[in-house]
Design brief:
Blueprint: H1 18-43, H2 45-64, E1 69-71, E2 77-80, E3 83-87, H3 95-107, H4 112-144, H5 148-174, H6 179-186
């Protein structure tokens, strides 16, 4: 092939635009599943570390705003006024959300230099949001325990995914390159 000829003609049509994004996202999701189910979850240390960090952060946040909160020894269990309020388990430590967010940013075309700071700051923001969520659930349990189940499964899920979608939209608008333009730029 002559250097002046476009390399995009050699690529199949499904590789451009949305097809590329969906395939890369699906591939990253598959790699995440293999890594998490094969190594991270069975080992348990990453989930335990994150759960402990979220519980400690929620406890500290509640203490800063004047509540009597503490954390249980050996477990990521948050207490309010000496009574158990919230246990942070592996499904709620945020790890899957961090991977989902990072996977989208990695799959969508854009500059690598921006990814190097956008992904860590986005993950940090999601971690802080998760700390606030756990603190709010502890307050919810302490003052209106009958609504904890609903808020845990629906209200906070909606809020967290809305924030992730907002971060994704920010990435696409500010740093992302439309997949079709990325193909042209690479040619």
């Amino acid at each position: 092939m002559h250097p002046s000829e476009s390399t995009s003609a050699a690529r199949p049509a499904w590789w451009s635009g949305r097809g590329r994004f969906l395939l890369v996202a699906a591939g990253l999701y598959g790699l995440w599943l293999l890594a998490y189910e094969g190594y991270i979850a069975p080992d348990g240390r990453v989930d335990a570390w994150l759960a402990q960090g979220v519980a400690e952060g929620g406890t500290a946040l509640l203490q800063v705003v004047g509540f009597r909160a503490s954390i249980g020894p050996g477990l990521p269990l948050l207490y309010m006024d000496g009574l158990p309020a919230v246990v942070v388990g592996a499904p709620c430590d945020g790890l899957a959300l961090y991977a989902l967010f990072a996977g989208f940013v990695l799959a969508y075309p854009g500059p690598w230099r921006a990814r190097l700071w956008f992904i860590p700051l986005g993950v940090l923001g999601l971690f802080v949001l998760n700390v606030v969520r756990v603190a709010a659930l502890a307050l919810n349990h302490h003052y209106a325990h009958h609504s904890v189940e609903f808020n845990h499964h629906y209200t906070f899920t909606f809020v967290v995914y809305a924030c992730i979608c907002g971060l994704w939209a920010w990435w696409v608008r500010r740093y992302g390159t439309a997949p079709e333009l990325a193909e042209e730029a690479a040619a």
